[in-house]
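Slide 14.
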Amino acid sequence: MIKEIESFSPEDTYKLGEMLGCQAKPGAIYCLDGDLGVGKTVFTQGFSRGLNIDEPINSPTFTIVQEYHEGRLPFYHFDVYRIGDISEMDEIGYEDYFFGDGVCFIEWAKLIGELLPDDVVWVTIEKDLEKGFDYRKITIKD
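Slide 15: predicted structure.
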C-alpha cells in the first residue's frame, strides 16, 4: 500500500513521524529516503516520540547506529550514508538489529539495499519549492 501525505511545516512532519512511531511493531524496519535538508531528522524525532523516547535524537552519521532503550520498544537509528563497503554492516552486527525485537529506522537505506528484508516500510520525503519552502511530500510504501 502507498500513502502520500503533504506536510506544510516541520511540525506536520514531526507529527506524521510520531503517528508512525505510535503504530510501530517489534521487528519493524523503516527505510527513510530523501535529500539532505528535507526533514529526515525532524521526522525521526517525531517517530521516536511515538515510541515514548524522551532523549534527544540526532543523526548517527559518524557512528552508523544509535541505540535507544528507554521507550516502549528498543529503537535503532541507522545512518548508513558513510558506509564505504557493505561489509561494515557485518562488523556492527546488523542482523541482530534487523531481526530482533526492536524497531530499526535506516536513513540512506538504498545504499545497503541488498541486506534489507522484503518487508520493510519505505518513507520518502521530497521538497517541492513551488508549493512553499516548508512543503514536503511524504510517501509511505509498505
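Speaker note: The first helix runs from residue 10 to 23.
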